[in-house]
Amino acid sequence: MASFNVAAFLFFLGLLFGASFAQLTEDFYDQTCPRLPNIVRREVKRAIESDIRAGAKLIRLHFHDCFVQGCDGSVLLVDAPGIESELNGLGNLGIQGLEIVAAIKAAVERECPGVVSCADILAQASKDSVDVQGGPSWRVLYGRRDSRTANKTGADELPSPFETLEPLKKKFEALGLNSTDLVALSGAHTFGRSRCRFFNGRFSNFSGSGQPDPTLDPTYRQELERACTNEDTRVNFDPTTPDTFDKNYYTNLQANRGLLTSDQSLFSEAGADTVDTVNLLASREGTFLRFFRRSMIKMGNIRPLTGNQGEIRTNCSRLNDLGAQPGHDVM
To the nearest whole number, what is the mean pLDDT of the chain? Predict the structure, then answer.
């Protein structure tokens, strides 16, 4: 009887947690699209060669996909009948890279038509974006399917560059990600750019204080003010090695040179458990890469659609029954 109860309990847990996770496997496409990793990596390298920001664009799309109703490709859907695009959500305003995903998807479709989901392409492209630019590699798990719905309201609630630590932690915790994951995944800001509108409020009258943000290094603030000729100017997240995936994001935080409020809050909020994690990841390159890899795999397994759920989109921006009708691209 005891063994039966244990078995029943494990089955119940499987229904709650394991049904989707267990179906994601490394060998999902071994028979149907064996060259998938090579195709995606080739296209990601090509994109980065023509646009050094391509990798950061792709990984941001993957993050924003997984944080709204799970890793299901919903972030890629444009406005259409019955679809209010997540791209219109406050957290996605200005997000870029749809044309890169479209090029990768087209290359995959030429070899393996109707087989590989856009959600899986985002997961693979994010990994390649990182290791092509000096970061860690990992084995991507596959088997995600693409959502037939979008959630613009969810995109309105994405983690914000203006948020302090506690709201950020709550948003991560709601998805099963802890404060260590928050610090590790924020390390993606070791490459890429941000528009000045997302941090120029730190220059003066910060939070109505009449003064600059005290957690922003004064010399760095002056450099940023000179660089921000208008609010849409883009500035490197990492002023030291802006296009290399390394631990300098964390050493920048230690020097009060985190670009966004959400970045610097990981280190500058007194007594926060994230401070020790920042110090740990700043101490050794290998430590950061190991933690980042682990948290990326964990994030990539947030509520995927599997089995017969959703669909395998032919056009990542459109549901299959809407075909290739033109939608808006976000540039």
Answer: 91
Single-letter amino acid code for the residue at 293: R
CB 299 within 8 A of CB 137: no
* DSSP symbol at 71: S
For residue 198, the SS3 value is helix
Q: Domains of the chain, with CATH numbers?
A: 24-158+302-320 (1.10.520.10), 177-298 (1.10.420.10)
- Is residue 276 marked as binding? no
d(Cα 125, Cα 114) in Å, to the nearest integer? 18
Note the pLDDT tens digit of each residue in 25-38.
999 999 999 999 99
- pLDDT, position 323: 55
Is residue 321 a known part of a binding site? no
pTM of the complete model: 0.89
Which residue in the block uniquely carries the two structure tokens 């603030």? 221
The sign of the dihedral angle between the CA atoms of 303, 307, 309, 310 is: positive
**Mean pLDDT of the region 46-73:** 97
Long-range contacts (CB closer than 8 Å, 24 or more residues apart) made by 200-208: 200/224, 200/225, 200/228, 200/231, 201/162, 202/261
Q: What is the pLDDT of residues 242-272, one digit of tens each?
A: 999 999 999 999 999 999 999 999 999 989 9
If DSSP codes are grouped into helix, strand and coil, which group holds residue 100? helix
189 is in an annotated binding site: yes
DSSP assignment, residue 139?
A: P
Q: Which residues are catalytic?
A: 64
